[in-house]
Amino acid sequence: GENVEQHPSTLSVQEGDSAVIKCTYSDSASNYFPWYKQELGKRPQLIIDIRSNVGEKKDQRIAVTLNKTAKHFSLHITETQPEDSAVYFCAASEPGGGADGLTFGKGTHLIIQP
Amino acid sequence: GAVVSQHPSWVICKSGTSVKIECRSLDFQATTMFWYRQFPKQSLMLMATSNEGSKATYEQGVEKDKFLINHASLTLSTLTVTSAHPEDSSFYICSALGGRSVSYNEQFFGPGTRLTVL
């Protein structure tokens, strides 16, 4: 099965700086890579996703890059704000008729220092 | 659109009892629903995949006789934790795949159910 590694486990950045979280996956057949933001006790919120036919995607301050050859993908947050503080999870989904569970990374606790 | 609800939001039960958690897709039909478990300060772990009208597919290490899943309709899946024990205490989150999201793999998550077994 799929295995997703996520680094770092904790990331502290100054407000206004950029934050980068990196993930690697093991199954070259995986084709969908979402990123979630989760606040304590709440559901994961999809913030951006990328599919294997695309190398980069951007949505305002958030961007995701995918390197299929190296099997890694990264989340980039620019101009960080206090409300960006949360736990971020990357995930990967294997193809299977469009109905696949997600394999999550272990999460990154992002702390934005004022 | 694409709203998923769960009930109850939290439950406390005695050891040995069974607890049922409902997951509903409110504004779309979910061909597939997923159940995840999240222990404190840990990641989400997929427990099982539930397809309407068929048996659930369980991940390795998840006891199908302990975690009973029923997907009776395109808008409802239930997870029953049977003979619950303190180690089953966790945050249980469902997600649903359906409608336009089927071709994109996007899952819509429920708000989660906090289970505490005394």
Main features:
heterodimer; A: mainly beta; 6-stranded mixed β-sheet; globular; B: 118 residues; 4-stranded antiparallel β-sheet; 11 strands
Q: Kindly report how far apart the N and C termini of chain A lie.
A: 41 Å
* Greatest interface by residues involved: A-B, 24 and 28 residues
Kindly report how far apart the N and C termini of chain B lie: 37 Å
- What's the helix count of chain A? 0
Q: Largest sheet of chain A, described in full?
A: 6 strands, mixed
**Percent helix range of chain B:** under 10%
> What's the rounded overall pLDDT mean of chain A?
93
Radius of gyration of chain A: 14 Å
Helix content of chain A: under 10%
Q: What's the Cα radius of gyration of chain B? A: 13 Å
Describe how the helices and strands are arranged:
The complex is a heterodimer of chains A (114) and B (118).
Chain A: E1 4-7, E2 10-14, E3 19-25, E4 32-38, E5 45-51, E6 56-59, E7 62-67, E8 72-77, E9 86-93, E10 102-104, E11 108-113
Parallel strand pairs in A: 2-11
Antiparallel strand pairs in A: 1-3, 3-8, 4-5, 4-9, 6-7, 7-8, 9-10, 9-11
Chain B: E1 4-7, E2 10-13, E3 19-25, E4 30-38, E5 44-51, E6 57-58, E7 67-73, E8 76-81, E9 90-98, E10 108-109, E11 113-117
Parallel strand pairs in B: 2-11
Antiparallel strand pairs in B: 1-3, 3-8, 4-5, 4-9, 5-6, 7-8, 9-10, 9-11
Overview of this protein structure:
Chain A is an all-beta fold and 114 residues long. Chain A is built from no helices and eleven strands. In chain A, strands 2, 4, 5, 9, 10 and 11 form a six-stranded mixed beta sheet that branches. Chain A has a five-stranded antiparallel beta sheet with strand order 1-3-8-7-6, with no helix packed on it. The model of chain A has no long low-confidence stretch (mean pLDDT 93). With 118 residues, chain B is mostly beta strands. Chain B is built from no helices and eleven strands. In chain B, strand 4 and strand 5 form a beta hairpin. The N and C termini of chain B lie far apart (37 Å). At the A-B interface, strand 5 and strand 10 of A face strand 4, strand 5 and strand 9 of B.
